[in-house]
Design a protein that fits this description.
The protein is α+β, with helices and mostly antiparallel strands and 275 residues long. The protein has helices spanning 91-102, 119-133, 138-156, 168-183, 191-198, 202-213, 217-234, 239-245, 251-262, 266-273, and strands spanning 6-11, 17-24, 29-32, 37-45, 47-51, 54-58, 62-66, 72-76, 82-89, 109-111, 115-117, 157-159. It has a six-stranded antiparallel beta sheet with strand order 1-2-9-4-7-11. Strand 1 (6-11) and strand 2 (17-24) form a beta hairpin.
Length: 275
């Protein structure tokens, strides 16, 4: 990490909640996804990113809203860098909170715009982030979680529906490949194995998967391995043991991709979440 760049990270021990506060200037996020809803607020500078086929520039006070498995990247929009806060919330927890807030069963929301300019939303995300970074009581964390999720839902979400015009056959191929990758991501799967699982050609696998998930199957497999490494680190496993257990050739390989996806080294992440 370059001089002047820093990262602070917290992970809840009992709920799917994580919070990050960071400053980056030269760091570049590789295209990746999260298995969570991810909401961020830019505090200073400009963060540029691509998501869902568009290019965006998040300036001070703007809110980023990523759905689970939204492919995106990120880098500084000017040499001065940027500072931002990010909160990651598990999908089931979001629907649970919404059901309580609405007083009825809630479907999983879909945030249609990855970038919003709304000071009230920014304030709600900041307050939740502050509670997760601590110190705060359990009651304060729950109240701020409910307030932030409810505000984001009212302002920017819509129910999940199948995208109009999506080709069912192509989506079926992509979903089959995704299931195979999740089931066997530690194995050195050749393209032929994925094509055989989907009952189609290697080209159709690649094309369908990129159309559905915004990245190649090999990128997605590496992302799954990096997420597995993150879970092992959170459980207290030393980084040197994590690399082979998560499917990486060596610790240097794990370090390189962990930083490109999550913005901090495996060692720094382990210290933050096992503190």
């Amino acid at each position: 990490m370059d001089a002047g760049e820093w990262v602070r990270y917290r992970r809840s021990p009992d709920r799917p909640l994580e919070a990050m506060h960071a400053r980056f200037a030269s760091h570049v996020y590789h295209r990746h996804t999260h298995g969570t809803y991810s909401f961020g607020v830019t505090e200073a500078g400009v963060q540029e990113f691509t998501c869902r086929g568009g290019r965006y520039a998040s300036g001070r006070g703007m809110v980023m809203a990523f759905n689970p498995d939204d492919p995106h990247d990120g880098h500084a929009g000017d040499p001065a860098g940027f500072v931002y806060r990010m909160v990651h919330i598990g999908p089931d927890l979001v629907t649970e909170v919404l059901a309580e807030a609405l007083g009825r069963a809630a479907t999983r929301p879909l945030f249609s715009a990855p970038l919003l300019r709304d000071e009230r939303l920014a304030g709600a995300v900041r307050r939740l982030h502050a509670a997760l970074m601590g110190p705060a009581t359990a009651l304060e964390r729950d109240e701020r979680l409910t307030a932030a999720v409810a505000a984001l839902h009212r302002r920017a979400s819509r129910p999940v529906r199948a995208a109009a015009g999506r080709r069912a056959a192509s989506r079926s191929i992509a979903d089959t490949v995704r299931e195979r990758l999740h089931a066997d991501f530690l194995s050195d799967l050749p393209a032929e194995a994925l094509a055989e699982a989907a009952g189609t050609s290697r080209f159709a696998v690649y094309r369908s998967f990129r159309a559905a998930y915004g990245m190649s199957p090999s990128d997605y497999q590496r992302l799954l391995r990096t997420r597995a490494a993150r879970d092992l680190l959170a459980a207290g496993v030393p980084p040197a043991r994590v690399a082979p257990e998560a499917g990486f050739a060596d610790q240097a390989h794990l370090n390189r991709w962990f930083v490109r996806y999550f913005g901090l080294t495996p060692g720094a992440y382990r210290r933050a979440v096992t503190r």
